[in-house]
Amino acid sequence: MTGETPPALDVLLAERAIERLIVDYAALNDAGEWAALAALYLPDGRMNRPTAPELFVEGQAAILASFAARPKRVARHIVANIRVSVTGETASATSQILLFTAPGAAPLVGTYRDRLCLTPAGWRFAERAGSLDFPAA
């Protein structure tokens, strides 16, 4: 053995790191920790909200400003069905989100499609594109 990590293990480790990134994103969002959430993006990363899939916010600073401008709310994101595909230092992922907000709003179900890149700081979002699976009629 040369001491190198087998390629299959590298893929599994990358998949797990990306799964953790997606779950951390939801937890930081629920906690209102906007600076930490924005830091999960590349400096030129972009995102949209599932409720406004046609409107992208571009750049880490703009993403931070977008979240910081939101009114305070109590929210819980449940993340499920995370599927990751790793190709070297880039990856793609999909996940389903169930969002509960208080008081009394109907839960929302959506899908995120992510593009990710490996950086010296770990995996980061190049793009998070969300959409609602069951949009309001």
How does this model look, in words?
It is a single chain. The protein is built from 3 helices and 6 strands; from the N terminus they run H-H-E-E-H-E-E-E-E. It is an alpha+beta fold. The chain has one domain (about 5-130): Roll (Nuclear Transport Factor 2, Chain: A). Strands 2-1-6-5-4-3 form a 6-stranded mixed β-sheet, with helices on one face. It is globular, with a radius of gyration of 16 Å. It starts with 6 loop residues before the first helix and ends in a 5-residue tail after the last strand.
Report the structural category: alpha+beta
Spell the H/E element sequence. Answer: HHEEHEEEE
Read across the widest sheet, the strand sequence of neighbours is 2-1-6-5-4-3
For this structure, the CATH topology is Nuclear Transport Factor 2, Chain: A
Helices, strands, pairings?
Layout: H1 7-31, H2 34-38, E1 41-49, E2 52-58, H3 60-68, E3 74-87, E4 90-102, E5 108-119, E6 122-132
Parallel strand pairs: 1-6
Antiparallel strand pairs: 1-2, 3-4, 4-5, 5-6
What attributes does this structure have?
globular; alpha+beta; six-stranded mixed beta sheet; 137 residues; 3 helices
